[in-house]
Write a structure and sequence with these properties.
Blueprint lengths: L8 E12 L2 E12 L3 E4 L7 E8 L3 E3 L2 E3 L2 E8 L5 E10 L4 E5 L3 E9 L1
Antiparallel strand pairs: 1-2, 1-10, 3-4, 4-7, 5-6, 7-8, 9-10
């Protein structure tokens, strides 16, 4: 069951490094979104869209401490919204960040509730 805070707004600071030919293109964005909703990154420098979904879990007991982990899902979709490659999931327990890697893409996400 989700608590009311599971629907609070979050800021995402995103750094994307994509290998294009023989060089790396860096894209840095700050986006505001909500937990449990898709957050879409579309940029002129990206050939596909990146879709994030963040889901917050409330009060999980780990080593005697209550923590609130966040599950971060990332998938890539083309213009027809067809999923490209494998979706990736990272659960962030202690820090509010995640790093995703694909063959030509490195995505770092830092997030904070606002």
């Amino acid at each position: 069951m989700y608590s009311g805070s599971a629907y609070s707004q979050i800021n995402l600071n995103i750094k994307i490094n994509q290998v294009v030919g023989s060089k790396t293109v860096e894209i840095v964005k700050t986006i505001t979104g909500n937990y449990n909703q898709d957050i879409v990154i579309a940029s002129e420098g990206l050939k596909n869209r990146i879709v994030f979904s963040l889901r917050k879990f409330k009060n999980i007991l780990v080593n005697g401490n209550k923590i609130n982990p966040v599950q971060i899902d990332m998938k890539m979709v083309d213009e027809a919204k067809k999923v490209i490659g494998k979706p990736q999931t990272i659960t962030s327990f202690y820090n509010k960040s995640a790093e995703f890697n694909a063959s030509d893409l490195n995505v770092k996400v830092n997030f904070e509730e606002i």
